[in-house]
């Protein structure tokens, strides 16, 4: 097992589609043939699966594993093929155990869908889901809290712990559900005790679940078996990783100096863990 420490980008200018320079520092982990995981897997260096655990505290950080994290509580939902992005079949959303009145087609029709994306900071719901979601949260906390609008976000002045007043939210996928604590759908804004709904209204027809939802969880992208798994987890803790015997260390044949360095590290063991500081 190899441990590497990496730093995070704090500023990047420009629109991603406008220049290749805006992609500096980004590792691609899509299902496409040019992604890091696809290329390493095609060379027999790693299995076609990776996992991450993103810390949700103010310091951030976490773990990225080129391999499968083993945790008994992980549940899985099948990927929707054939896509480069990681699409799941989101079937419904429940607030306080009550299914919201959302047409399932808002998540599953041909030009729609739900993406798991660690490259997105917040989360985005299509309008048909966003409006009833915000209404349900506001209804659940009334009359304990007085809601108000700040910069087009639904916000609340909170004087007690979030768990005492805000409901649990359940994202119900095919075969598994992801239960969100208040901290996983709210964001803290400027001002003492001001919390706002972190889900934004999607501009297009795709629902995107980003780091707001994915934090404090082990997320397993099992591309080989076309499924994604998750479980709540303390991301400052160690993780257990599956290491198949078929991925024994072997010598790299790359001639590129930078490539030789990377591959020599990767081939010591199929697991590479990045402590994201």
Radius of gyration (CA) equals 20 Å
Low-pLDDT regions = 250-277
CATH architecture: Beta Barrel
Shape: globular
Average of per-residue pLDDT values: 82
CATH superfamily: Acid Proteases
Strand content: 25-35%
Protein name: Peptidase A1 domain-containing protein
GO biological process, one term: proteolysis
GO molecular function: aspartic-type endopeptidase activity
Organism: Prunus armeniaca (Apricot)
Give the topology:
Elements: E1 2-6, H1 36-42, E2 49-54, E3 62-65, E4 68-70, E5 75-78, E6 87-88, E7 90-95, E8 98-99, H2 105-108, E9 114-116, E10 123-125, H3 127-141, E11 147-150, E12 153-157, H4 162-165, E13 169-173, E14 176-180, E15 186-188, E16 194-197, E17 199-201, E18 207-209, H5 211-214, E19 217-222, E20 227-232, E21 240-242, H6 257-266, E22 272-276
Parallel strand pairs: 1-22, 9-18, 10-17
Antiparallel strand pairs: 2-3, 2-19, 3-22, 4-21, 5-20, 6-9, 7-8, 7-13, 10-18, 11-12, 12-16, 13-14, 15-16, 19-20
